[in-house]
Sequence to fold (525 residues):
Amino acid sequence: MIELEQVSCGYGDSTLLSGISMKLAPGSFHFLTGPSGAGKTTLIKLCYAELIATQGRVSLFDQDVNRMSRDDVARARRRIGVVHQDCQFLDHLSVAENVSLPLTVSGRSLENPSELDDLLAWVGLSAQRDAKPPELSGGERQRAALARAVVMSPDVILADEPTGNVDWDMSLRLLRLLVELNKMGKTVLIATHDMNLIRSAKAQIQARVLRISNRQLHQAGADL
Amino acid sequence: MNARLSTLMHFLAGDAQADRLVPPTGYTARLTVFAAASMAFLAVFALAFSLATGRVADRWGEALAKSSTIRINAPADQMDAQVLAVMEILATTPGVKEARPLGDEEQRALLEPWFGPDLPLDRLPIPKLIEVIEDAGGYDAEGLRARLTGEAPGAILDDHARWREPLVRAANRLRALGLVAIVLIAALAGVVITLAASAALAANERVIGVLRLVGAQDSYIAHAFVRRYTLRALGGASVGTVLGAVAIFLLPSASDQGNFLTGLGFAGWQWLWPLVIPPLAALVAFAATRQTAQTVLQEKR
Fold:
């Protein structure tokens, strides 16, 4: 699905990630952890080609990112659902319009319009269907972002600190949704520094935990 | 051709959902509409100016080319004989439609602006003038001059070429200047719309980021901006064109004395020309926004 081979990346003269290799196999569930500023967001951005590696090779669905056209990258992103910590909505559109945005830009529509209602019900946002994003709470925004990430039924879901702004109950609720998606065959990568969330997930599902420290990616888990 | 037509129809019809992706408000929207309206208003005047000077050039050229004058300088006792000789020559000259000696009153009227109304024509050695009107084919001026020299030595042909050509040339240059003004206005409209589109793209960087995140292709994002700015330019230019046309319509109409200023406007079918301005403005906006969007989007991953 997504593969990084000896990838280095940084901003300006500073290198944030160095010689990192990672492979997200179909149906796998990964956590990405590490201290703030370690490079979790950078690694996530490499996984959907928002950032380009300074060294090494990033492959999206068996295509080398460096050889992909801009349209190829756009098409690949339709197979990757991304949940950002700050959600990134279009504030002038309703929740329903934001959630269906990936369908709009790809010229597709749901087979049955009620599927959008089902999706909003799944994330518990039926009542907020016509609300604008600024009117939502932090947890509602995260769930709306998750709904948008899965509306195209993507192969991979990348979530960058999805529980960063919500309470523990909401964190567990979001985790449950992501675990459900993984059980449906979706590949999931969650960047988080919340160890309790990781422990809770490992109790429900087989998940690999990767940790970034000193610009390197390490296998973790034994201490969790 | 059908594919292009289909693309154009799709562009004009638009996509209601896609149109909503870019926030609708902002000063760039008003700037674009105002700029397009102002440019169209000016373009109507430039067009009217250019067409009016064109008409003047044609009128001067045509009127002066069709008539010429033969001036006869001769002693009073030989004047009638010379006039008669010239009239006989003209009667047998191919291309001369009509010729007639000007009467005393007509000559007095010609001289009155310079010498006043009490000019004693009978006591002054005023040359006799013969007005010659050409037919459509015209006559051979050099041949006629040669015959006049031989048969009526005091007669001099003035076919107005000396002063007709500079006048027509000046009018044609004015017409060209009007067209240059239209081109400059179109270019200026392109620059203003480019700046407005650049500002809009910069202001909507977050929107572009979100659209990219969910898999929008550059062409889709560009289309959303291009269509919006094209329609704004079309709307603004339509308003400006109507206002400009009304202003031209309200100008004083050409009088019988017909000087240039009172003839500034459109005549007959020329009133259709302003209809070209709104689509032209839309075309300029389309090209400017498309180029700007492509450049800006290429710069960002």
